[in-house]
Amino acid sequence: MSRLSDLPKIVLGPLADRPDADWYRAPPGRWTSAQIVEHLALGIEWSAVGFEDRRARDPMVRRPLTLRERLGKVLGMHLGFFPPFLEAPSKSVPAAHVERQAAETHFRSAVAKFEAVATLLLPARARDLFVKHPRMGDLTLEEWMEFHRRHARHHARQIRQRVAG
Known about the structure:
The protein is mostly helical. It is built from six helices and two strands, in the order H-H-H-H-H-E-E-H. The longest helix has 24 residues, at 141-164.
């Protein structure tokens, strides 16, 4: 997959041609598919804005990772595992009710925004520009792309479970 261009297919594909009710179905106490899509949109947009805000900065140096950040990086980036007991960062928590169309539009817009930032900054700023991930420390643009791919696959599994059930 190049950049994030396949994310709409991965995330929204299982919801294509599904009735609205499928977007709002979820186990008790869990997010609906609409909320999951919004959660992903918020995270992608958050990182895109971070890079956009930092693009004019001088070259940066990555801060050393804490032990917790190293563990988060191994779990999330290398194993694609997102522990169910960890809560999403507050900036990426969706509202209690998210409309299907709003979530889908926001998600597509966030992916396009990230792609535009990536096109603008890569390859020139591939190794000297960072945005802090709340669980994994400073990540480059390419590391954020990998995170978003893994994170989207994780949530796409949840979406498939919801529409199958």
